[in-house]
Amino acid sequence: MYRPAAMQQAVLPTYHIDAENPDRRGRALADLGAGFTSWRLAWALARLDLRNRYRGSVIGPFWVTLSMAAMVLGLGLLYSQLFQMDLQSYLPHLVTSLIVWNVLAAMVADAANCLSSADGVIRQLRLPLTTHALRCVFRNALNAAHTLPLILVVFAIVGHWPGIEVLLLIPGLAVLAVNALAVSIFLGMICARFRDIGPIVTNVMQMAFFLTPVIWKPELLKENAVWLPLNPFYTMLEMVRGPLVEGGGSLLTWAAALGYSSVLLAIALVFFIRFRNRVAFWV
Amino acid sequence: MASISARGLRIEFPLYHLAARSLKKRLLAKAAIRLKTDESNRVVVSALSELTFDISRGERVALIGTNGAGKTTLLRTLAGIYEPVAGQLEVHGEVGSLIDPAAGIDSDSTGRENIVLRGLYRGMSESQIALLEADAAEFAGLGEFLDMPTRGYSAGMQVRLSFAIATAITPQILLMDEWFLAGDADFMLKAEERLTRLVTGADILVIATHDMNVVRRWCTRVIKLEAGRIIGDGTVDEILGPAGA
Protein backbone atom coordinates (compact mmCIF):
# COMPACT_ATOMS: atom_id res chain seq x y z
CA MET A 1 0.00 0.00 0.00
CA TYR A 2 2.95 2.27 0.63
CA ARG A 3 3.92 4.41 -2.30
CA PRO A 4 7.23 6.26 -2.18
CA ALA A 5 7.05 10.03 -2.51
CA ALA A 6 9.04 9.95 -5.71
CA MET A 7 6.31 7.91 -7.35
CA GLN A 8 3.59 10.27 -6.27
CA GLN A 9 5.43 13.14 -7.88
CA ALA A 10 5.72 11.27 -11.15
CA VAL A 11 3.34 12.17 -13.94
CA LEU A 12 0.03 10.54 -13.23
CA PRO A 13 -1.68 8.52 -15.91
CA THR A 14 -4.36 10.82 -17.21
CA TYR A 15 -7.57 9.92 -18.91
CA HIS A 16 -9.07 12.92 -20.60
CA ILE A 17 -12.06 12.92 -22.85
CA ASP A 18 -13.92 15.83 -24.32
CA ALA A 19 -16.99 15.02 -26.37
CA GLU A 20 -16.68 18.32 -28.28
CA ASN A 21 -13.17 17.45 -29.37
CA PRO A 22 -12.99 13.66 -29.42
CA ASP A 23 -9.57 13.28 -31.11
CA ARG A 24 -10.77 10.06 -32.65
CA ARG A 25 -7.66 9.40 -34.66
CA GLY A 26 -5.31 9.90 -31.75
CA ARG A 27 -7.33 7.56 -29.59
CA ALA A 28 -7.61 4.92 -32.28
CA LEU A 29 -3.86 4.97 -32.85
CA ALA A 30 -3.28 4.83 -29.10
CA ASP A 31 -5.60 1.82 -28.99
CA LEU A 32 -3.61 0.06 -31.71
CA GLY A 33 -0.35 0.94 -29.97
CA ALA A 34 -1.53 -0.31 -26.60
CA GLY A 35 -2.95 -3.46 -28.18
CA PHE A 36 0.33 -4.33 -29.85
CA THR A 37 2.42 -3.55 -26.78
CA SER A 38 0.31 -5.91 -24.71
CA TRP A 39 0.42 -8.67 -27.32
CA ARG A 40 1.29 -11.11 -24.56
CA LEU A 41 -2.24 -10.81 -23.25
CA ALA A 42 -3.77 -11.50 -26.66
CA TRP A 43 -1.44 -14.46 -27.09
CA ALA A 44 -2.29 -15.90 -23.68
CA LEU A 45 -6.01 -15.53 -24.39
CA ALA A 46 -5.67 -17.15 -27.80
CA ARG A 47 -3.86 -20.14 -26.32
CA LEU A 48 -6.55 -20.38 -23.68
CA ASP A 49 -9.24 -20.35 -26.38
CA LEU A 50 -7.55 -23.22 -28.16
CA ARG A 51 -7.11 -25.20 -24.98
CA ASN A 52 -10.69 -24.67 -23.85
CA ARG A 53 -12.08 -25.59 -27.22
CA TYR A 54 -10.49 -29.01 -27.10
CA ARG A 55 -10.83 -29.53 -23.38
CA GLY A 56 -10.93 -33.20 -22.52
CA SER A 57 -10.09 -34.31 -26.03
CA VAL A 58 -7.14 -36.67 -26.27
CA ILE A 59 -5.59 -35.41 -29.48
CA GLY A 60 -7.15 -31.95 -29.23
CA PRO A 61 -6.43 -29.57 -32.09
CA PHE A 62 -4.85 -32.41 -34.06
CA TRP A 63 -8.38 -33.43 -34.92
CA VAL A 64 -8.29 -30.57 -37.40
CA THR A 65 -5.11 -32.01 -38.86
CA LEU A 66 -6.66 -35.44 -39.16
CA SER A 67 -9.91 -34.31 -40.73
CA MET A 68 -8.04 -32.10 -43.15
CA ALA A 69 -5.82 -35.01 -44.17
CA ALA A 70 -8.88 -37.18 -44.75
CA MET A 71 -10.53 -34.47 -46.80
CA VAL A 72 -7.47 -33.91 -48.99
CA LEU A 73 -7.17 -37.62 -49.63
CA GLY A 74 -10.86 -38.05 -50.44
CA LEU A 75 -11.22 -34.97 -52.61
CA GLY A 76 -7.88 -35.66 -54.28
CA LEU A 77 -8.93 -39.12 -55.39
CA LEU A 78 -12.37 -37.97 -56.52
CA TYR A 79 -11.54 -34.78 -58.36
CA SER A 80 -8.39 -36.04 -60.04
CA GLN A 81 -10.73 -38.56 -61.67
CA LEU A 82 -13.42 -35.99 -62.47
CA PHE A 83 -10.98 -33.50 -63.94
CA GLN A 84 -8.91 -36.30 -65.47
CA MET A 85 -5.70 -35.04 -63.97
CA ASP A 86 -3.00 -37.22 -62.56
CA LEU A 87 -2.66 -37.18 -58.79
CA GLN A 88 0.98 -36.07 -58.99
CA SER A 89 0.14 -32.68 -60.46
CA TYR A 90 -3.27 -32.24 -58.85
CA LEU A 91 -2.53 -33.05 -55.21
CA PRO A 92 -0.03 -30.22 -54.53
CA HIS A 93 -2.58 -27.74 -55.87
CA LEU A 94 -5.45 -29.23 -53.91
CA VAL A 95 -3.69 -29.57 -50.58
CA THR A 96 -2.38 -26.01 -50.65
CA SER A 97 -5.65 -24.49 -51.83
CA LEU A 98 -7.86 -26.42 -49.49
CA ILE A 99 -5.79 -25.76 -46.40
CA VAL A 100 -5.21 -22.08 -47.09
CA TRP A 101 -8.87 -21.63 -47.98
CA ASN A 102 -9.91 -23.24 -44.72
CA VAL A 103 -7.61 -20.93 -42.80
CA LEU A 104 -9.08 -17.90 -44.60
CA ALA A 105 -12.67 -19.00 -44.15
CA ALA A 106 -12.19 -19.83 -40.47
CA MET A 107 -10.50 -16.48 -39.97
CA VAL A 108 -13.36 -14.56 -41.56
CA ALA A 109 -16.02 -16.49 -39.67
CA ASP A 110 -14.20 -15.96 -36.40
CA ALA A 111 -13.60 -12.28 -37.12
CA ALA A 112 -17.34 -11.75 -37.46
CA ASN A 113 -17.86 -12.32 -33.77
CA CYS A 114 -14.49 -11.49 -32.29
CA LEU A 115 -15.89 -8.42 -30.53
CA SER A 116 -19.44 -9.54 -29.77
CA SER A 117 -18.10 -12.67 -28.10
CA ALA A 118 -15.85 -10.56 -25.86
CA ASP A 119 -18.77 -8.45 -24.64
CA GLY A 120 -18.29 -9.37 -20.99
CA VAL A 121 -14.72 -8.15 -20.96
CA ILE A 122 -15.39 -5.09 -23.12
CA ARG A 123 -18.05 -3.84 -20.73
CA GLN A 124 -16.05 -4.48 -17.58
CA LEU A 125 -12.42 -3.80 -18.29
CA ARG A 126 -10.86 -0.98 -20.20
CA LEU A 127 -8.78 -2.81 -22.76
CA PRO A 128 -7.69 -1.81 -26.24
CA LEU A 129 -10.09 -3.26 -28.80
CA THR A 130 -6.98 -4.21 -30.73
CA THR A 131 -6.35 -6.84 -28.08
CA HIS A 132 -9.58 -8.65 -28.98
CA ALA A 133 -8.79 -8.47 -32.69
CA LEU A 134 -5.24 -9.71 -32.10
CA ARG A 135 -6.59 -12.53 -29.96
CA CYS A 136 -8.71 -13.62 -32.92
CA VAL A 137 -5.73 -13.46 -35.29
CA PHE A 138 -3.48 -15.41 -32.91
CA ARG A 139 -6.17 -18.00 -32.30
CA ASN A 140 -6.52 -18.62 -36.01
CA ALA A 141 -2.78 -18.61 -36.52
CA LEU A 142 -2.47 -21.34 -33.87
CA ASN A 143 -5.19 -23.32 -35.61
CA ALA A 144 -3.50 -22.83 -38.96
CA ALA A 145 -0.25 -24.12 -37.50
CA HIS A 146 -2.02 -27.45 -37.05
CA THR A 147 -2.91 -27.84 -40.72
CA LEU A 148 -0.28 -25.95 -42.73
CA PRO A 149 2.43 -28.61 -42.16
CA LEU A 150 0.20 -31.09 -43.99
CA ILE A 151 1.15 -29.27 -47.17
CA LEU A 152 4.76 -30.31 -46.64
CA VAL A 153 3.75 -33.89 -45.97
CA VAL A 154 1.84 -34.10 -49.24
CA PHE A 155 4.70 -32.40 -51.11
CA ALA A 156 7.08 -34.99 -49.70
CA ILE A 157 4.80 -37.84 -50.73
CA VAL A 158 4.31 -36.73 -54.32
CA GLY A 159 7.84 -35.34 -54.57
CA HIS A 160 6.87 -31.79 -55.51
CA TRP A 161 9.38 -29.21 -54.31
CA PRO A 162 9.17 -25.50 -55.08
CA GLY A 163 12.34 -23.57 -55.98
CA ILE A 164 13.76 -20.35 -54.63
CA GLU A 165 10.40 -18.62 -55.23
CA VAL A 166 9.30 -20.21 -51.98
CA LEU A 167 10.81 -17.15 -50.28
CA LEU A 168 7.82 -15.18 -51.55
CA LEU A 169 5.88 -17.07 -48.90
CA ILE A 170 7.25 -14.69 -46.29
CA PRO A 171 5.70 -11.50 -47.69
CA GLY A 172 2.62 -13.50 -48.66
CA LEU A 173 1.95 -14.73 -45.15
CA ALA A 174 2.80 -11.30 -43.72
CA VAL A 175 0.21 -9.61 -45.94
CA LEU A 176 -2.32 -12.27 -44.97
CA ALA A 177 -1.63 -11.60 -41.29
CA VAL A 178 -2.20 -7.86 -41.74
CA ASN A 179 -5.42 -8.61 -43.61
CA ALA A 180 -6.50 -10.93 -40.82
CA LEU A 181 -6.16 -8.13 -38.31
CA ALA A 182 -7.98 -5.66 -40.56
CA VAL A 183 -10.80 -8.13 -41.13
CA SER A 184 -11.08 -8.83 -37.40
CA ILE A 185 -11.39 -5.15 -36.61
CA PHE A 186 -13.75 -4.34 -39.45
CA LEU A 187 -16.03 -7.38 -39.34
CA GLY A 188 -15.82 -7.53 -35.55
CA MET A 189 -17.18 -4.01 -35.28
CA ILE A 190 -19.76 -4.15 -38.02
CA CYS A 191 -21.11 -7.50 -36.83
CA ALA A 192 -21.36 -6.20 -33.28
CA ARG A 193 -23.54 -3.37 -34.54
CA PHE A 194 -25.59 -5.22 -37.17
CA ARG A 195 -26.35 -8.75 -36.09
CA ASP A 196 -27.47 -9.74 -39.58
CA ILE A 197 -24.06 -9.30 -41.12
CA GLY A 198 -22.73 -12.51 -39.54
CA PRO A 199 -25.00 -14.88 -41.49
CA ILE A 200 -24.44 -12.84 -44.67
CA VAL A 201 -20.70 -13.29 -44.26
CA THR A 202 -21.17 -17.05 -43.90
CA ASN A 203 -23.15 -17.14 -47.14
CA VAL A 204 -20.67 -15.01 -49.03
CA MET A 205 -17.83 -17.27 -47.96
CA GLN A 206 -19.72 -20.36 -49.07
CA MET A 207 -20.36 -18.85 -52.48
CA ALA A 208 -16.78 -17.64 -52.75
CA PHE A 209 -15.53 -21.18 -52.15
CA PHE A 210 -17.09 -22.31 -55.43
CA LEU A 211 -16.17 -19.18 -57.37
CA THR A 212 -12.54 -19.39 -56.34
CA PRO A 213 -10.17 -21.96 -57.80
CA VAL A 214 -9.80 -24.04 -54.65
CA ILE A 215 -10.79 -27.47 -55.89
CA TRP A 216 -10.55 -26.68 -59.58
CA LYS A 217 -7.43 -25.35 -61.23
CA PRO A 218 -7.38 -21.90 -62.86
CA GLU A 219 -6.35 -23.48 -66.18
CA LEU A 220 -9.83 -25.00 -66.47
CA LEU A 221 -11.19 -21.54 -67.22
CA LYS A 222 -9.01 -21.38 -70.34
CA GLU A 223 -9.01 -17.84 -71.81
CA ASN A 224 -11.44 -16.62 -69.11
CA ALA A 225 -8.73 -17.10 -66.51
CA VAL A 226 -7.58 -13.51 -67.09
CA TRP A 227 -10.61 -12.32 -65.10
CA LEU A 228 -9.57 -14.26 -62.00
CA PRO A 229 -7.62 -11.41 -60.34
CA LEU A 230 -10.99 -9.64 -59.99
CA ASN A 231 -11.76 -12.17 -57.25
CA PRO A 232 -10.05 -10.92 -54.08
CA PHE A 233 -10.14 -14.38 -52.54
CA TYR A 234 -8.23 -15.77 -55.50
CA THR A 235 -5.46 -13.22 -55.06
CA MET A 236 -5.24 -13.94 -51.32
CA LEU A 237 -4.97 -17.64 -52.03
CA GLU A 238 -2.33 -17.01 -54.67
CA MET A 239 -0.04 -15.29 -52.16
CA VAL A 240 0.54 -18.72 -50.62
CA ARG A 241 -0.20 -20.99 -53.54
CA GLY A 242 1.96 -19.03 -55.95
CA PRO A 243 5.21 -19.48 -54.03
CA LEU A 244 4.47 -23.12 -53.20
CA VAL A 245 2.92 -24.54 -56.34
CA GLU A 246 2.96 -22.17 -59.27
CA GLY A 247 6.50 -20.93 -59.43
CA GLY A 248 5.83 -17.63 -57.67
CA GLY A 249 2.49 -16.50 -59.06
CA SER A 250 2.00 -13.75 -61.61
CA LEU A 251 2.93 -10.14 -61.04
CA LEU A 252 -0.66 -9.15 -61.75
CA THR A 253 -2.12 -11.29 -58.95
CA TRP A 254 0.47 -9.98 -56.51
CA ALA A 255 -0.36 -6.42 -57.46
CA ALA A 256 -4.08 -7.13 -57.16
CA ALA A 257 -3.56 -8.81 -53.79
CA LEU A 258 -1.67 -5.82 -52.47
CA GLY A 259 -4.32 -3.50 -53.89
CA TYR A 260 -7.20 -5.35 -52.22
CA SER A 261 -5.23 -5.51 -48.98
CA SER A 262 -4.65 -1.76 -48.96
CA VAL A 263 -8.32 -1.08 -49.58
CA LEU A 264 -9.33 -3.45 -46.79
CA LEU A 265 -6.80 -1.92 -44.44
CA ALA A 266 -7.96 1.60 -45.26
CA ILE A 267 -11.63 0.75 -44.73
CA ALA A 268 -10.87 -1.00 -41.45
CA LEU A 269 -8.79 1.92 -40.23
CA VAL A 270 -11.41 4.55 -41.13
CA PHE A 271 -14.10 2.49 -39.50
CA PHE A 272 -12.00 1.92 -36.40
CA ILE A 273 -11.19 5.60 -36.04
CA ARG A 274 -14.79 6.67 -36.50
CA PHE A 275 -16.63 4.09 -34.40
CA ARG A 276 -14.15 2.66 -31.89
CA ASN A 277 -15.71 4.47 -28.93
CA ARG A 278 -19.18 3.13 -29.76
CA VAL A 279 -18.27 -0.53 -29.51
CA ALA A 280 -18.91 -0.70 -25.75
CA PHE A 281 -22.52 0.26 -26.51
CA TRP A 282 -22.85 -2.19 -29.37
CA VAL A 283 -21.68 -5.48 -27.92
CA MET B 1 -2.27 14.50 -7.50
CA ALA B 2 -5.20 12.22 -8.15
CA SER B 3 -8.38 13.98 -9.17
CA ILE B 4 -11.56 13.51 -11.17
CA SER B 5 -13.32 16.32 -12.91
CA ALA B 6 -16.51 16.04 -14.95
CA ARG B 7 -18.28 18.82 -16.84
CA GLY B 8 -21.73 18.33 -18.32
CA LEU B 9 -21.15 14.60 -18.76
CA ARG B 10 -23.80 12.80 -20.78
CA ILE B 11 -24.07 9.10 -21.60
CA GLU B 12 -26.78 7.69 -23.83
CA PHE B 13 -27.50 4.06 -24.57
CA PRO B 14 -28.86 3.56 -28.04
CA LEU B 15 -31.50 0.85 -28.26
CA TYR B 16 -30.43 -0.59 -31.57
CA HIS B 17 -32.62 -3.59 -31.77
CA LEU B 18 -35.86 -1.62 -31.56
CA ALA B 19 -36.59 -1.29 -35.20
CA ALA B 20 -40.36 -1.59 -35.03
CA ARG B 21 -41.96 1.80 -35.38
CA SER B 22 -45.01 0.92 -33.33
CA LEU B 23 -42.89 -0.17 -30.40
CA LYS B 24 -40.90 3.02 -30.73
CA LYS B 25 -44.07 5.10 -30.66
CA ARG B 26 -45.43 3.26 -27.68
CA LEU B 27 -42.21 3.71 -25.75
CA LEU B 28 -42.01 7.39 -26.45
CA ALA B 29 -45.71 8.13 -26.09
CA LYS B 30 -45.93 7.98 -22.32
CA ALA B 31 -44.17 11.25 -21.57
CA ALA B 32 -40.91 9.38 -21.44
CA ILE B 33 -38.40 10.82 -19.01
CA ARG B 34 -35.31 8.89 -19.96
CA LEU B 35 -36.22 7.61 -23.40
CA LYS B 36 -35.90 9.94 -26.32
CA THR B 37 -34.73 9.96 -29.91
CA ASP B 38 -31.36 11.31 -30.89
CA GLU B 39 -30.47 13.23 -34.04
CA SER B 40 -30.38 10.09 -36.18
CA ASN B 41 -33.88 9.21 -34.94
CA ARG B 42 -32.80 6.26 -32.82
CA VAL B 43 -34.38 5.55 -29.48
CA VAL B 44 -31.83 6.20 -26.74
CA VAL B 45 -31.95 5.83 -23.00
CA SER B 46 -30.35 8.78 -21.41
CA ALA B 47 -28.31 7.01 -18.76
CA LEU B 48 -26.51 10.02 -17.37
CA SER B 49 -27.07 13.65 -18.16
CA GLU B 50 -25.48 16.93 -17.23
CA LEU B 51 -23.20 15.54 -14.57
CA THR B 52 -20.80 18.13 -13.27
CA PHE B 53 -18.60 17.43 -10.26
CA ASP B 54 -15.04 17.52 -9.01
CA ILE B 55 -13.48 14.94 -6.76
CA SER B 56 -10.12 15.70 -5.30
CA ARG B 57 -7.53 13.73 -3.40
CA GLY B 58 -8.66 12.27 -0.10
CA GLU B 59 -12.35 12.29 -0.87
CA ARG B 60 -14.39 9.13 -0.37
CA VAL B 61 -17.50 9.46 -2.44
CA ALA B 62 -20.62 7.34 -2.22
CA LEU B 63 -22.93 7.18 -5.20
CA ILE B 64 -26.43 6.49 -4.00
CA GLY B 65 -29.75 6.25 -5.74
CA THR B 66 -32.39 3.69 -6.66
CA ASN B 67 -31.79 0.85 -9.08
CA GLY B 68 -31.23 2.23 -12.55
CA ALA B 69 -30.27 5.68 -11.31
CA GLY B 70 -26.99 5.41 -13.20
CA LYS B 71 -24.53 4.50 -10.45
CA THR B 72 -22.80 1.64 -12.24
CA THR B 73 -22.89 3.49 -15.54
CA LEU B 74 -21.10 6.39 -13.89
CA LEU B 75 -18.48 4.02 -12.48
CA ARG B 76 -17.92 2.53 -15.91
CA THR B 77 -17.66 5.97 -17.42
CA LEU B 78 -15.05 6.95 -14.86
CA ALA B 79 -13.20 3.74 -15.67
CA GLY B 80 -13.10 4.76 -19.34
CA ILE B 81 -15.36 2.01 -20.66
CA TYR B 82 -18.21 4.21 -21.89
CA GLU B 83 -17.25 7.36 -23.69
CA PRO B 84 -19.61 10.30 -23.19
CA VAL B 85 -21.63 11.77 -26.05
CA ALA B 86 -21.34 15.21 -24.51
CA GLY B 87 -19.28 16.88 -21.86
CA GLN B 88 -15.76 16.43 -20.60
CA LEU B 89 -14.13 14.08 -18.19
CA GLU B 90 -10.65 14.28 -16.81
CA VAL B 91 -9.24 11.58 -14.55
CA HIS B 92 -5.75 11.94 -13.12
CA GLY B 93 -4.32 8.90 -11.46
CA GLU B 94 -4.18 5.19 -11.90
CA VAL B 95 -7.66 3.71 -11.82
CA GLY B 96 -8.56 0.38 -10.31
CA SER B 97 -12.12 -0.73 -10.84
CA LEU B 98 -13.95 -3.41 -8.92
CA ILE B 99 -17.16 -3.43 -10.90
CA ASP B 100 -17.88 -7.00 -11.86
CA PRO B 101 -16.37 -9.85 -9.84
CA ALA B 102 -16.40 -12.31 -12.70
CA ALA B 103 -14.95 -10.02 -15.37
CA GLY B 104 -12.12 -11.81 -17.10
CA ILE B 105 -12.45 -15.02 -15.13
CA ASP B 106 -12.09 -18.05 -17.35
CA SER B 107 -14.03 -20.91 -15.85
CA ASP B 108 -11.99 -23.58 -17.62
CA SER B 109 -8.77 -22.34 -16.09
CA THR B 110 -7.55 -23.11 -12.62
CA GLY B 111 -7.63 -20.53 -9.88
CA ARG B 112 -3.92 -19.96 -10.25
CA GLU B 113 -4.15 -19.52 -14.01
CA ASN B 114 -6.92 -17.01 -13.50
CA ILE B 115 -4.74 -14.97 -11.20
CA VAL B 116 -2.01 -14.87 -13.83
CA LEU B 117 -4.56 -14.03 -16.51
CA ARG B 118 -5.84 -11.08 -14.51
CA GLY B 119 -2.29 -9.88 -14.11
CA LEU B 120 -1.95 -9.94 -17.90
CA TYR B 121 -5.26 -8.10 -18.28
CA ARG B 122 -3.84 -5.41 -16.08
CA GLY B 123 -0.66 -5.24 -18.14
CA MET B 124 1.63 -6.38 -15.33
CA SER B 125 5.17 -7.58 -15.80
CA GLU B 126 6.19 -11.13 -14.96
CA SER B 127 7.62 -10.21 -11.56
CA GLN B 128 4.51 -8.23 -10.66
CA ILE B 129 2.37 -11.17 -11.67
CA ALA B 130 4.37 -13.45 -9.41
CA LEU B 131 3.67 -11.08 -6.50
CA LEU B 132 0.00 -10.91 -7.40
CA GLU B 133 -0.17 -14.68 -7.53
CA ALA B 134 1.40 -15.10 -4.11
CA ASP B 135 -0.81 -12.44 -2.55
CA ALA B 136 -4.11 -13.53 -4.08
CA ALA B 137 -3.42 -17.21 -3.51
CA GLU B 138 -2.69 -16.60 0.13
CA PHE B 139 -5.80 -14.54 0.73
CA ALA B 140 -8.18 -16.76 -1.23
CA GLY B 141 -7.12 -19.68 1.00
CA LEU B 142 -8.35 -22.26 -1.47
CA GLY B 143 -5.57 -24.72 -0.71
CA GLU B 144 -5.42 -27.58 -3.16
CA PHE B 145 -8.43 -26.22 -5.04
CA LEU B 146 -6.31 -23.38 -6.35
CA ASP B 147 -5.00 -25.72 -9.01
CA MET B 148 -8.42 -26.94 -10.04
CA PRO B 149 -10.53 -25.39 -12.80
CA THR B 150 -12.78 -22.71 -11.29
CA ARG B 151 -15.73 -24.34 -13.02
CA GLY B 152 -15.82 -26.82 -10.17
CA TYR B 153 -15.73 -24.22 -7.41
CA SER B 154 -18.59 -23.63 -5.03
CA ALA B 155 -20.20 -20.20 -5.19
CA GLY B 156 -18.38 -19.18 -2.04
CA MET B 157 -15.02 -20.28 -3.40
CA GLN B 158 -15.64 -18.33 -6.57
CA VAL B 159 -16.38 -15.19 -4.60
CA ARG B 160 -13.22 -15.68 -2.54
CA LEU B 161 -11.10 -16.10 -5.61
CA SER B 162 -12.56 -13.12 -7.50
CA PHE B 163 -12.32 -10.99 -4.41
CA ALA B 164 -8.72 -11.99 -3.81
CA ILE B 165 -7.72 -11.29 -7.40
CA ALA B 166 -9.63 -8.04 -7.67
CA THR B 167 -8.42 -6.56 -4.42
CA ALA B 168 -4.76 -7.38 -4.90
CA ILE B 169 -4.19 -3.92 -6.33
CA THR B 170 -3.17 -0.56 -4.98
CA PRO B 171 -4.78 1.97 -7.27
CA GLN B 172 -4.85 5.70 -6.64
CA ILE B 173 -8.47 5.90 -7.68
CA LEU B 174 -10.64 3.02 -6.57
CA LEU B 175 -13.99 2.54 -8.27
CA MET B 176 -16.14 0.00 -6.50
CA ASP B 177 -19.56 -1.47 -6.98
CA GLU B 178 -21.37 -2.67 -3.92
CA TRP B 179 -21.21 -6.37 -4.62
CA PHE B 180 -17.81 -6.22 -2.99
CA LEU B 181 -19.49 -5.64 0.31
CA ALA B 182 -22.16 -8.26 -0.21
CA GLY B 183 -20.30 -11.42 0.81
CA ASP B 184 -21.48 -13.71 3.58
CA ALA B 185 -20.76 -12.67 7.14
CA ASP B 186 -17.85 -15.05 7.74
CA PHE B 187 -16.13 -13.99 4.61
CA MET B 188 -16.72 -10.31 5.22
CA LEU B 189 -14.99 -10.63 8.55
CA LYS B 190 -11.91 -11.87 6.80
CA ALA B 191 -12.29 -9.45 3.93
CA GLU B 192 -12.75 -6.50 6.22
CA GLU B 193 -9.12 -5.82 6.90
CA ARG B 194 -8.11 -6.21 3.29
CA LEU B 195 -10.89 -3.97 2.11
CA THR B 196 -10.12 -1.31 4.69
CA ARG B 197 -6.51 -1.33 3.61
CA LEU B 198 -7.53 -0.95 -0.01
CA VAL B 199 -10.06 1.77 0.64
CA THR B 200 -7.86 3.80 2.93
CA GLY B 201 -4.85 3.31 0.70
CA ALA B 202 -6.50 4.83 -2.35
CA ASP B 203 -6.33 8.56 -2.89
CA ILE B 204 -9.90 8.64 -4.12
CA LEU B 205 -12.71 6.18 -3.53
CA VAL B 206 -15.92 6.16 -5.51
CA ILE B 207 -18.35 3.52 -4.38
CA ALA B 208 -21.85 2.78 -5.62
CA THR B 209 -23.99 1.44 -2.82
CA HIS B 210 -27.44 1.09 -1.31
CA ASP B 211 -26.13 0.46 2.16
CA MET B 212 -26.18 3.59 4.29
CA ASN B 213 -23.97 1.95 6.93
CA VAL B 214 -21.26 1.66 4.33
CA VAL B 215 -21.73 5.29 3.43
CA ARG B 216 -21.49 6.50 7.00
CA ARG B 217 -18.56 4.32 7.78
CA TRP B 218 -16.33 4.96 4.84
CA CYS B 219 -17.44 7.99 2.92
CA THR B 220 -16.93 11.72 3.33
CA ARG B 221 -19.20 12.78 0.54
CA VAL B 222 -22.41 11.59 -1.08
CA ILE B 223 -23.57 12.11 -4.63
CA LYS B 224 -27.20 11.19 -5.02
CA LEU B 225 -28.36 10.21 -8.47
CA GLU B 226 -31.86 9.97 -9.77
CA ALA B 227 -32.79 9.10 -13.35
CA GLY B 228 -29.24 9.83 -14.46
CA ARG B 229 -28.99 13.27 -12.87
CA ILE B 230 -27.35 14.51 -9.71
CA ILE B 231 -30.04 15.52 -7.24
CA GLY B 232 -27.82 15.93 -4.23
CA ASP B 233 -24.12 16.43 -3.62
CA GLY B 234 -22.68 17.14 -0.20
CA THR B 235 -21.26 15.71 2.97
CA VAL B 236 -22.76 12.56 4.38
CA ASP B 237 -24.69 14.44 7.05
CA GLU B 238 -26.03 16.97 4.59
CA ILE B 239 -27.48 14.35 2.29
CA LEU B 240 -28.50 11.63 4.70
CA GLY B 241 -29.27 13.77 7.71
CA PRO B 242 -27.21 13.65 10.93
CA ALA B 243 -26.13 10.22 12.13
CA GLY B 244 -28.58 8.48 14.41
CA ALA B 245 -31.49 10.61 13.23
TrEMBL record, chain B:
Keywords: ATP-binding, Nucleotide-binding, Transport
UniProt name for this protein: ABC transporter ATP-binding protein
Family: Belongs to the ABC transporter superfamily.
UniProt KW ATP-binding keyword: yes
Domain of life according to the entry: Bacteria
PROSITE patterns, A to Z: ABC_TRANSPORTER_1, ABC_TRANSPORTER_2
Organism expressing this protein natively: Teichococcus deserti
ABC transporter domain location: 33-245
Gene3D superfamilies in alphabetical order: P-loop containing nucleotide triphosphate hydrolases (3.40.50.300)
Pfam families found in the cross-reference section: ABC_tran
Molecular-function GO term, any one: ATP binding
GO cellular component: membrane
InterPro entries cross-referenced by the UniProt entry: AAA+_ATPase, ABC_transporter-like_ATP-bd, ABC_transporter-like_CS, ABC_transpr_TagH-like, Bact_Polysacc_Export_ATP-bd, P-loop_NTPase
Chain segments annotated as transmembrane: none
Record flagged with keyword Cytoplasm: no
